[in-house]
């Protein structure tokens, strides 16, 4: 047998890219590749890229600059660009970075095995199609190799919402849902490989319509799988939270008490300019309904500050929304102008104004995050242990609220759900003792 070829894949952006990267590794496994953890060791490097903000896209070109140095020494090294920058820029990437051998978009990576053969012959393939065929049906089964007890599973891709700031509808295309039977089958394959918690993924996961009863219908079906103990989903749009899904938070034991529900702004004027199609009051009302079903729900969100036209009062409305809702954590972003999106045409805010707002919002969010963590001290939570910790004898995992928890415990508890009493709250994690 010949030596396996070595693949290094670097993932940027959202969890959907994490999932896609796993599947790309599995796909290239068929061509004799095994994954390695540095580009220096690799025969092929794939960058699975993100286009959401300017910085994200620029990182790719600086990484390609570093890879060029390796390729100068080892001209055999093959370099591929996948993901959302690949989709957005296609052929242009090769013009700007001639070291690149292949470009593949998020909808066509099932064709990677053929593309890999083409680059071995010196070709430079570019594939950013939105093909007719379903890529998932052309991908290998999920690998049964040893994996951690948690996994992502993409159920829906693309977005039809066209928020005024966002590139995703252009890079990922229109909303498409995978058929429910195939998702159930993939979930079973993951459970057979030792997975106990699955996070269902989609750019707008709660717009899932591959089940007659929507995402809630799919969750109930997955909840039937023996050995699957925890279900989560992300990312949701407030307008797609239907009654069945809200109810599931109160009735489905396997659905974890955690929800990421981006709102972006607390100002009605800005929400409208962003084309989010709901008001702040509608968001408050929705949160009230979900919390009525699940009072201990840990809620997180995404915010953009410095959107074109955002006044001090608009920003104050965002701060007010955050104070009223009380989030367990949140991501805060400074608005980044994306060419081709409607908001890019509007007069932009001065950078220092946006920075000041970003710091103020981050400070408030951090305070709320600490408060949510501190409130866990003294409580008992269920922790799914995932791996060994940094200190000897320590194991780490996630609580049902998705807090990182570490405890002293036997290695045999890795992969198991244990009751843990929280004894201490640190900046980024909780310390507990097994009960
Ligand atoms: N589909 C999800 C989010 C996808 S992008 C949703 O609807 O919420 C993840 C986050 O990146 C968004 O929630 C938004 O807060 C942020 N984001 C998207 N485009 C951005 C831009 N142009 N500038 C700054 N942040 C942006
Ligand atoms: Fe982007 Fe809006 Fe779609 Fe989310 S809902 S992916 S922010 S366009
Ligand atoms: Fe980035 Fe594409 Fe995800 S732009 S956030 S990797 S969908």
UniProtKB/TrEMBL annotation:
It comes from the Bacteria. Residues 374-435 form the TRAM domain. Belongs to the methylthiotransferase family. MiaB subfamily. PANTHER family: CDK5 REGULATORY SUBUNIT-ASSOCIATED PROTEIN 1, MITOCHONDRIAL TRNA METHYLTHIOTRANSFERASE CDK5RAP1. [4Fe-4S] cluster 2 binds at residues 159, 163, 166. This is tRNA-2-methylthio-N(6)-dimethylallyladenosine synthase. CDD domains: Radical_SAM. [4Fe-4S] cluster 1 binds at residues 14, 50, 84. Monomer. HAMAP family: tRNA_metthiotr_MiaB. Its EC number is 2.8.4.3. It is found in: Cytoplasm. It holds the Pfam family TRAM. The keyword Membrane does not apply. GO terms for molecular function: tRNA-2-methylthio-N(6)-dimethylallyladenosine(37) synthase activity. Catalyzes the methylthiolation of N6-(dimethylallyl)adenosine (i(6)A), leading to the formation of 2-methylthio-N6-(dimethylallyl)adenosine (ms(2)i(6)A) at position 37 in tRNAs that read codons beginning with uridine. Residues 5-121 form the MTTase N-terminal domain. Its main location: cytoplasm. Residues 145-374 form the Radical SAM core domain.
């Amino acid at each position: 047998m010949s030596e396996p070829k070595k693949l290094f894949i670097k993932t940027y952006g959202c969890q959907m890219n994490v999932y896609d990267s796993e599947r790309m590794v599995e796909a290239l496994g068929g061509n004799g590749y095994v994954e390695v953890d540095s580009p220096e060791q690799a025969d092929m490097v794939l960058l699975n890229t993100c286009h959401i903000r300017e910085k994200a896209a620029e990182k790719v070109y600086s990484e390609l600059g570093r890879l060029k140095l390796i390729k100068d020494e080892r001209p055999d090294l093959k370099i591929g660009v996948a993901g959302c920058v690949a989709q957005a820029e296609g052929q242009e990437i090769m013009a700007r970075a001639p070291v690149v051998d292949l470009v593949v978009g998020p909808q066509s990576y099932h064709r990677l095995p053929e593309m890999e053969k083409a680059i071995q012959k010196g070709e430079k393939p570019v594939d950013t199609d939105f093909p007719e065929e379903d890529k998932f049906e052309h991908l290998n089964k999920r690998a049964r190799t040893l994996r951690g007890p948690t996994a992502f599973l993409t159920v829906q891709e693309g977005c039809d919402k066209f928020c005024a700031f966002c590139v995703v509808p252009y890079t990922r295309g229109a909303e498409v849902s995978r058929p429910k039977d195939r998702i159930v089958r993939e979930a079973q394959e993951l459970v057979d490989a030792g997975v106990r918690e699955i996070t269902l993924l989609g750019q707008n996961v709660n717009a899932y319509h591959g089940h007659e009863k929507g995402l809630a219908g799919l969750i109930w079906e997955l909840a039937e799988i023996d050995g699957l103990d925890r279900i989560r989903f992300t990312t949701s749009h407030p307008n797609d939270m239907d009654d069945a899904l809200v109810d599931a938070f109160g009735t489905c034991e396997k659905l974890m008490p955690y929800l990421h529900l981006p709102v972006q702004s607390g100002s009605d004027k800005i929400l409208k300019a962003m084309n989010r199609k709901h008001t702040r009051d509608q968001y408050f009302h929705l949160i009230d309904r979900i919390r009525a079903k699940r009072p201990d729900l840990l809620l997180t969100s995404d915010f953009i500050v410095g959107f074109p036209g955002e006044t001090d009062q608009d920003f104050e409305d965002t701060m007010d929304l955050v104070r009223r809702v009380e989030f367990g954590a949140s991501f805060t972003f400074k608005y980044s102008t994306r060419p081709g999106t409607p908001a890019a045409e509007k007069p932009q805010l001065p950078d220092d104004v946006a920075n000041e707002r970003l710091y103020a919002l981050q400070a408030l969010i951090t305070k709320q995050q600490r408060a949510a963590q501190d409130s866990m001290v003294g409580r008992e939570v269920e922790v799914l242990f995932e791996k060994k910790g940094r200190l000897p004898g320590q194991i780490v995992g996630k609580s049902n609220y998705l807090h990182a928890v570490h405890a002293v415990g036997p290695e045999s508890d890795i992969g198991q759900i244990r009751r843990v009493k929280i004894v201490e709250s640190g900046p980024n994690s909780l310390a507990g003792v097994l009960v």
